[in-house]
């Protein structure tokens, strides 16, 4: 029996590949599952309108390749945030949430990672925070109806860059369908690389963390680094997550046009498994 599962963030692979090819590469390079991306691009948002035939084809492909989609990274709310002061954008945000929850239900996806933003491209204020809470309450009603867990990603902005900040909303909503899915790279930057503070912050969410994004960061740099190039302390972060009962991890990194992208997939899975197994086994 496996003691953990390691997933691959879909955007680590070229977008020119078919989803079938991405599933094959996920398994080929040592990952157990793929994390589906629904970002703010029209192409990815169109996935929310996949019909049942398209969904059945994906499910059959996953079965044939012995792979699965454990989670959806729903970053489309950057463009359509729950806390927007625009009523039209808030309505679009809730429609995106509803469609994502239904898609997850049909695909058998356990949880949706949601962005910890009240507003992204515009300033945050007391009104956007109030709208965010209002939208979150409506979102949780939808999620509980379909049995899908929503889990906050800890972000790169002050609004929700720590587990402690995410826990404020988890405790406020007080629902089994709202949890936390922290990004350990973002946590590391939020705590200025201090491993003891990262550990303390992760433990603050014990009982409410469903999985962990494993990502490399440097001070003020949040993406597009190779594993091992930054200051994320993987043994410490993974140990803290494990102490919280977490056994699901996703390697989060991006395809950036580099020719050796397939090599990077293998290197990432080897690097992460080494650190996970150093803690769990």
TrEMBL record:
Q: Where is the signal peptide?
A: none
Q: Which domain of life is it from?
A: Bacteria
Pfam families, per the entry: AP_endonuc_2
Statement: the UniProt record of this protein carries the keyword Isomerase? yes
Report whether Isomerase shows up as a keyword of the record. Answer: yes
User: Which InterPro entries does the UniProt record give?
Assistant: L-Ru-5P_3-Epase, Sugar_Epim/Isomerase, Xyl_isomerase-like_sf, Xyl_isomerase-like_TIM-brl
Q: Where is the Xylose isomerase-like TIM barrel domain?
A: 24-274
* UniProt-listed SUPFAM superfamilies: Xylose isomerase-like (SSF51658)
Give any GO molecular function from the UniProt entry.
L-ribulose-5-phosphate 3-epimerase activity
Which key words are in the record? Answer: Isomerase
Checking PANTHER family in the record gives:
ISOMERASE (PTHR43489), L-RIBULOSE-5-PHOSPHATE 3-EPIMERASE SGBU-RELATED (PTHR43489:SF1)
Q: What is this protein called?
A: L-ribulose-5-phosphate 3-epimerase
This chain's source organism reads Paracholeplasma manati
């Amino acid at each position: 029996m496996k003691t953990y599962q390691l997933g691959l963030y879909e955007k680590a692979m070229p977008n020119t590949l078919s989803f079938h090819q991405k599933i094959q590469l996920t398994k080929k390079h040592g990952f157990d599952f793929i994390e589906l991306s629904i970002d703010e691009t029209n192409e990815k948002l169109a996935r929310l309108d996949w019909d049942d035939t398209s969904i059945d084809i994906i499910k059959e492909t996953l079965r044939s390749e012995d792979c699965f989609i454990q989670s959806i990274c729903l970053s489309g709310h950057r463009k359509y945030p729950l806390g927007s002061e625009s009523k039209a954008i808030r309505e679009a945000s809730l429609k995106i949430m509803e469609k994502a929850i239904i898609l997850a239900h049909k695909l058998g996806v356990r949880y949706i990672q949601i962005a910890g933003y009240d507003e992204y491209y515009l300033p945050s204020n007391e009104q956007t925070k109030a709208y965010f809470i209002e939208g979150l309450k409506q979102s949780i009603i939808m999620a509980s109806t379909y049995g899908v867990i929503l889990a906050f990603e800890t972000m790169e902005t002050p609004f929700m860059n720590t587990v402690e900040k995410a826990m404020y909303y988890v405790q406020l909503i007080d629902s089994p369908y709202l949890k936390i899915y922290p990004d350990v790279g973002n946590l590391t930057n939020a705590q200025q690389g201090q491993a003891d503070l990262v550990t303390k912050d992760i433990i603050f969410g014990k009982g409410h963390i469903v999985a962990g994004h494993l990502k490399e960061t440097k001070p003020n740099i949040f993406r597009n680094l190779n594993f091992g190039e930054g200051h994320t302390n993987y043994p410490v972060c993974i140990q803290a997550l494990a102490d919280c009962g977490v056994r699901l991890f996703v390697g989060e990194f991006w395809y950036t046009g580099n020719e050796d992208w397939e090599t990077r997939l293998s290197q990432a899975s080897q690097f992460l498994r080494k650190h996970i197994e150093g803690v769990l086994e």
